[in-house]
Write a structure and sequence with these properties.
- The protein has 6 helices and 7 strands; from the N terminus they run H-E-E-H-E-H-E-H-E-E-H-E-H.
- It is of the alpha/beta class.
- Strands 3-7-4-5 form a 4-stranded mixed β-sheet, with helices on both faces. Strands 1-2-6 form a 3-stranded mixed β-sheet, with no helix packed on it.
- The termini are far apart.
- It is globular and about 50 Å long.
- Helix 4 packs across helix 6.
Length: 209
Amino acid sequence: MKKDMGGGAIATGLCMLLKASNFNFELILPVVENMINGEAYRLGDVIEHDNGLTTEVLNTDAEGRLILSDALCWAEGGDGYVIDFATLTGAARVALGVEVGMYFTDDDELGERIYRKGLEVKDPVWRMPLYEGYEKRLKGKISDLTNVTRDGGLGGAITAALYLKNFVPEKKKWVHFDVNGMDEHGMGEANGLRACWEVIKEIVEEEKK
């Protein structure tokens, strides 16, 4: 599981920078034991989330989005920004490899800032579409949502991001990073960390004016 905790490690690293600069932030880490036992969920279970939505589990290996969805629900209260980092899909790695961080946002200005800052600090990132036409593929038959689509995972990184979007509190500007967490040599790869850090510093300076 060293790779699968990559997203949490990047989020923690970013928050260490925020803390050192005395910025106001909240770190939410949905940390769970990925182990079979008598209380583990099963294929076909319907799970109720903190915002009242329900999800039918169609794939037990798509577990990260289930815990991240509740973490997003907890980021409520007022406006502001929500940035999540998750080692979520193999589709992201297949599409962009291990050196380019994949991200999603429905805020065009914020999305452009992240891309621009990534270029400046040599932290390559690439924005992917939150294509609304795929939302219907996540609709459940006995639940509000399913944790994966029924078509074999086509566009898997996009549908995973669309799934998470259902749990983002209103008024929040949201960015989702689907990152690998490791490079081709098995070493840590903090995709998106430096780009986001530069964006946050820029926003803080603007808000001081």
